[in-house]
């Protein structure tokens, strides 16, 4: 499917020229190993560096918060990424007219580090092809294939929107939802008792170093001043310990309730491997079962906490006897 | 200094001997399989043989993320301030030469031209036992910034693996004291020393990344205003992970936590990559953009620290390169500055 | 039986955020009607239950609350039309999240009390206090005093 990459390059080159875009945000090879990293494309030279493969895991929509008001830009979006754009539209967080979306159908991304570990040592790595089942590499002139199933990201196996939900151009064939049930991890976790759950999460919160990489990697965390860093009032003390970090993770999960589109960038960015998606998915599931709401689908929709239904469930509300 | 030898089978016993009556810190593999740098209850928990690098550096052994500077109280006789009691003895086992050099740099920063008695009081309770690097990572570049896979700076003892044991290099008086009375240790034989030298030479030659650092502090200053910085900082998301995992980053914030009865003053790691780091009380921010902050970080490490202390504020451990979510590669960045247009 | 003064009954600290127009007035009515209810509740008046930020609840737990109560107007009766509907959604999600993390959601109670329902308020406070008493002191998320 290297044709996909060539087609994408063609589309980007066209848009850059015809739409007078300041830049297009895409992917290029990382500085080491097989991974990829963001690329800001402004010229034909830059287009030659553009790649697209299952190794393109970053959600580039996060860069829209840095767009200058007068700039028109383009961004390559996969299914989950496009939902972030829709969510931003719902919240008036992006000027849709200034953004050209280059949608790419995605069959799931893979973990670069896992792939690297499956490849032999060498000095040159090249991805020469990929399909639904495998990735083909040439390492120092030797061909080697890696099974996609062994290295794919968990969240992609239950992705419901493999085709972008909004785009100006679509590259690749339209795809259906993946098959796995989305909330099996959440439901498995809920089989544990309250004490066991707390034991698990305290251990996770103790690892947290409050680096805020999760927040900065997220396309939907774009507050100019984050509540976590306010001093007046101060919600979270500066000290880094279990209670403050627990407060931080709860705060962020609540701020993303009904808004998180499941790209998993937070979890990928976390340097201490906290399973952030487990928290976010729990709230995603609650929003679906309580309010029949899914984030980032209808540009004309309202965010779940900015809307209500007079018949919203209130089984938890207490009433007195009188 | 003297070089000794310990058989592989005696290593654990030897290390336990060194760590008696002390808190033990080192690389531990957690139940997700990730190597963490944290407290261990025994040497058997540590991952020493692996080339695995912990995501977090050993910096927290000497500069805790949240540290009590002093406490104060409102007593019947009026307000009083008390020093915090000294910490227990700490022995760090299994840190790599890049991490140890980071601590060596911090030692100098917190002692030269500043009156940081607290750091010194705590530091003297920390002993560092390092392991030489046999297999540098693809992101390592210690040899470009004054370090090496067998570097001894900052360490008290350095263990270098050879076929049937470890060469133990004594790097300081503290190291000397640690091995005194260790009965399972013997003098190193020539074969062991030769094998050690060969291993270190191979390790150094296998380092793939290199950074042209000769004179870079002067060159960087000349390209301060270059458009180069726009290009390199564009993909930065300002997350600060680089500063948290770095063995030499030491910027900190201070805050008091208190109630009517008393409180503490805390020192907490901060990051120059956040806008809040430099914002003034008036609201004005001298480093308003990611460009300013990224450039500032590079300059701090490669210009100002070099000018002030004659070492780069970087030990080439490669953590920031590996863990940056958008793969901003500081080695690539510094190499690129030589081509930057002024 | 000896008088064992070392055995203290746990008296929970419960913080209640009550909306000015309905639940606070209802609480006030309970007071003026001389209705007896447990003194464990400390009231913070807010203009509307919709004003309650989830971090109020978290901060309350951090600072020593064993339970939190949010009081608002009955649905369709909110003084500001919709505030209580938003609060209902928000608190539902917060309770789900707390339960998922391992914090008993019974520590966070939500109730609708109108300005004329003094008795209802007293009864709710009785129930909440009893419930939190059974759960015991809240140690999760508690801020540690470092001095």
Structure in words:
Chain A is of the alpha/beta class. Chain A has helices at residues 2-18, 44-47, 79-90, 112-118, 148-151, 184-189, 194-207, 213-217, 242-255, 265-269, 276-291, and strands spanning 23-29, 36-41, 73-77, 99-104, 125-130, 134-139, 142-147, 169-171, 317-318. In chain A, the strands form two sheets. A five-stranded mixed sheet of chain A has the order 2-1-3-4-8. In chain A, strands 5-6-7 form a three-stranded antiparallel sheet. The mean pLDDT of chain A is 93. Chain B is an alpha+beta fold and 342 residues long. Chain B folds into two domains: 3-205, Aspartate Aminotransferase, domain 2, CATH 3.40.640; 216-339, no CATH class. Helix content of chain B is 30%, strand content 22%. Chain B contains eleven helices and twelve strands. In chain B, strands 3-2-6-7-8-9-1-10 form an eight-stranded mixed sheet. Chain B has a four-stranded antiparallel sheet with strand order 5-4-12-11, with no helix packed on it. The model of chain B has no long low-confidence stretch (mean pLDDT 91). Chain C has 147 residues and is an alpha/beta fold. Chain C has one domain: 3-Layer(aba) Sandwich (Rossmann fold), CATH 3.40.50. Helices cover 39% and strands 16% of the residues of chain C. Chain C is built from four helices and four strands; from the N terminus they run βαβαβαβα. Chain C has helices at residues 23-32, 54-63, 83-101, 118-135; strands at 14-19, 41-46, 67-72, 108-112. Chain C has a four-stranded parallel sheet with strand order 2-1-3-4, with helices on both faces. In chain C, strand 1, helix 1 (23-32) and strand 2 form a beta-alpha-beta unit. In chain C, helix 1 packs across helix 4 (118-135). The longest helix of chain C has 19 residues, at 83-101. Residues 1-6 of chain C have low confidence and may be disordered. The A-B interface holds A 30-33, 35, 37-40, 58, 62-63, 66, 123, 207, 209, 211-213, 215-217, 229, 237-241, 265, 268-269, 271-273 and B 32, 34, 36, 55-56, 65-66, 138-139, 208-209, 231, 234-235, 237-241, 244-245, 253, 255, 257, 266, 268-269, 271, 274, 276, 290, 321-323, 325-327, 329, 331-332.
